[in-house]
Amino acid sequence: MPPPAATPHHVAILVYDGVTLLDLAGPAQAFAEANRLGADYRLTLVSPDGGDVTSNIGVRVPVDGAVSGAKAADTFLVPGADIYPRARVPRDLADAARLPAETAGRVASVCTGAFVLAAAGLLDGKRATTHWKVTHELAARCPTCRVDPDAIYVRDGTTWTSAGVTAGIDLALALVEEDHGADVARDVARLLVVYMQRAGGQSQFSAPLQAPPPRSPALRTVADLVVADPGGRYSLTDLARHLDVSTRHLSRLFRDELSTTPARYVESIRFDLARALLDQGHTATRAAALAGFPSYESLRRVFVRNLSTSPAAYQRRFSTTRTDTDAAPPDPDDRDATPRPRYPK
């Protein structure tokens, strides 16, 4: 006896000029793969006025109609675009998101699509995330929204938001799991050759040394000192003496401007330097030494605290696209770099 047919699930995706094509295609493909496994996702592309749109890479995207004419969606999805973290979301686009969201079973965004939801008032008082590079901007535009800068995706009730670009696939897998269970979601992940759940958060993907420089000249001097000589002595007393200020005044500067301590700030610069060195191909032990850490273990503790992974695991993910057989041999001093068997014994 054949299994019962799945209940149809209507997914409406809002597209507009400049929409990031992968934000749209990634989740759509995940839903299509779920359909091959017995789900019944029915995708509809809608635009604010019903006209076709042009994606961020110039590919024209045909739509099924206008938002105003679309039937109520079980899932309403808003992909992102590069332009809206840099510009205000137009009122017609915000209205186009607000209208179907009122009747949808759940609302979701991919990457900077969160800015469209925020402009429509759909993130007020909720937890959310977006691409790591613009989380601060989302928090500024939606003051009542609690932005999580590290999450791959966030669920707050029936509202879902996800991190940058390919995180839309992670989001879609989570939605499929909610609808059809972990087994189906796992099979979709295997068909797409992606992890069902990534290790760590999106902070692992952020570029090192990209934080804006401190406004205070004294704090900028501290940053310059550590970058120039990562292995130097930078205790609170040493820094205060170098800047010719009291330790109390220097501590207050760090607290008021950066919400941290001098020790943690020095550590963060060394951490960013170590990430850059790992990206360049240095071993974890060498990166620790060049970045000013007293040992590999001290660097490892900072990596685990910040990225929930070890330096060696981080480097395996980000240093090269080469396969294991082409990669450089592991650092013999790095216990996390010990080669693992390809297949279970």
Question: What does this protein structure show overall?
Answer:
By secondary structure, the protein is α/β, with parallel strands linked by helices. 41% of the residues lie in helices and 11% in strands. The model is unreliable at 336-345 (pLDDT under 50). The strands form 3 sheets. The protein has a 7-stranded mixed sheet with strand order 5-2-1-6-7-11-10, sandwiched between helices. A two-stranded antiparallel sheet has the order 3-4. The two termini are 38 Å apart. Helix 1 runs parallel beside helix 5 and helix 2 (91-101) packs across helix 3. The protein is elongated, with a radius of gyration of 23 Å. Helix 2 links the parallel strand 6 (75-78) and strand 7 (106-109).
Query: Could you give a short account of the major beta sheet?
Result: 7 strands, mixed
Q: What is the averaged pLDDT score?
A: 89
Low-confidence stretches: 336-345
Could you tell me the strand content as a percent range? 5-15%
Cα distance spanning the termini: 38 Å
Shape estimate:
elongated
Number of helices, where a helix is a run of at least 4 consecutive DSSP H or I residues:
13
| Order of secondary-structure elements | EHEEEEEHEHEHEEEHHHHHHHHH
Quickly give the structural class: alpha/beta
Strand order in the sheet with the most strands? 5-2-1-6-7-11-10
Strand tally: 11
Helix content range: 40-55%
Spatial extent as radius of gyration: 23 Å
Oligomer class: single chain
